[in-house]
Amino acid sequence: MRLAFVDDDYGEIKKLTTMIDKELQGTVYSSCTKQLFSTGETFLSVWKPGMYDIVFLDIFMDQLTGVDVARQIRKTDASVKIIFCTTSNEFASESYEVGACYYLHKPFGKDRIKAMLDRIDLSQIEKMRSVQLPDGSDIMLRSILYADYSSHCTTLHCKHGKNISVRASFSEVERL
Which stretches within the chain are classed as H helix? Predict the structure, then answer.
């Protein structure tokens, strides 16, 4: 699972990531990748659709607010989960406009983190995760059983006997 945290207060990001790590410890989700961003502008400069499974956005930041960033995200990605992190209820109605799935109040507490993780249903995120292969086709990662390489083609052996062959090196497909 790939997570992005956008908050201009590094201490708050660190507190949130630590609490999430504790809640996910010992689960299949414990090895998620996290990227931290101190501004909405920095985040948007690297943003690409499908890049993250969940984006945590502080609402009150210097230039672009979390709501502004969420609007930009929704222009290109309707499926990424957005979670707002804030001290105020002031923007709750706007969170619905951008399809946020949770409104996490600061200060963070174990109960709030657990409730958020239960609400966003991590198993659904893993089930829906897919990659685009070099030939342009998409494949859900959960459907791949194993892969092999022969004659300049990588074959992905999938559930239900469906195999997909692409003319690409094994390392190129593995990176995806």
Answer: 10-24, 40-46, 66-76, 92-97, 110-120, 122-128, 170-175
